[in-house]
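Our preliminary data section would be incomplete without showing what the modeling component actually yields. Below, a chain of 188 amino acids is followed by its predicted structure, encoded as tokens that our downstream tools consume directly.
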Amino acid sequence: MILNINTKENMELIKLMRISDILKIFVSINIIASLFTFIVFGFEIFLNIQFAFISSFFIIVGSFIGYKNNILKQSEVFSNASDRDIIDDIDDKFDLYGEINEHELSDEDIKQIIQEEKDKIKIKDSFVNTIKSFRATTSIYRISGYLVLIIGFFYLNNHNLLNAIAYLLGFLIVPLMALIVNLKYIKS
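Predicted structure:
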């Protein structure tokens, strides 16, 4: 399946979503939440929420950076690989009327060609997508987030500081902040 990616629109969207802006929002909300939990609930709950927040924050930022780079690379490939003009894309979106003259082929030949193309796409897409998305999933930020998650959990558990409810609530801070950031950029 070929995606029609308008790179100018994607570049504008990516420029809008700068990591520094997202970081400012996340840090400010984390400071407010940290002060509130430390004053109201104490140090133990504060520590649980911070370990969960920091690990989930690094995982989400790592995912964002990895997938952003993946999209930029794929958009460059698609923009460079497009030899067809806009009218060809509108008239023959999937290049069905390309090089093969269907009057010279029998029905069996056409079915065989279609089956061969389907088989190529299945094998190629699954392997190629795995390779392309591998770099996005192995971002150093994402891996460090998972390390903080594991180490923090075992640290809190071994020192009898683990409060499961507070730890799980700490994971909710980042998705709520992501919702706020998305709403901000949708409006602008």
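Residues 1-6 have pLDDT under 50 and may be disordered. The chain is about 80% helix and 0% strand. Preliminary results of this kind motivate Aim 1 of the renewal.
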